[in-house]
Amino acid sequence: MYLDQKTSETSLSKAQQKPRIYIVDDDRHIGEIISFAGDEVGCETHIICSVQDFKERWNEVVPDIIVLDIIMPDTDGLELLSWLAKKHCAVPVILMSGHDVRHLRSAHHLAEAFKIDVVAALQKPLALTTLETVLAEQLEEILSKRNIRND
User: Fold this and answer.
1) CB neighbours of 18 closer than 8 A, spacing ≥ 6?
2) pLDDT tens for each residue of 2-23
3) The domain 2-6+17-131: what is its CATH number?
4) How much is the pTM?
5) Measured between alpha carbons, how far is 89 from 32 in angstroms, rounded to an integer?
6) Can you tell me the distance from the alpha carbon of 69 to that of 77, in angstroms, rounded to the nearest whole number?
């Protein structure tokens, strides 16, 4: 089930569109908090509550940033990292977990082994200011890359 917070599928060019964040978390309330942070920094956010829905959405439109809970009931984030590696994911990923910090470290190491660009690994409960800072840094980098490509 997709729980889109913002949709702007228009005829705007990629450079004109807000950067798109896919928030992958089975807890809708956590997704809404992350969505709020994404909105605050100027991103288009999509809350996706299952790995299967994420894969379907990925095949439609690749996001600019992925925020990924590594422990979920249907398929864990580690399996999704493997899937992303097979898709040659070049999208920055923010990992998060409410479980033992060792899970988060293991996921981070695995992602690095898969050559996935992990820009942050955050422990739940999330500090909203930290998340906003990470998202703002990524937003700046994404917009900078878009401007370089369009010059």
Assistant:
1) 6, 8, 42, 43, 44
2) 444 444 444 556 657 899 999 9
3) 3.40.50.2300
4) 0.88
5) 24
6) 6
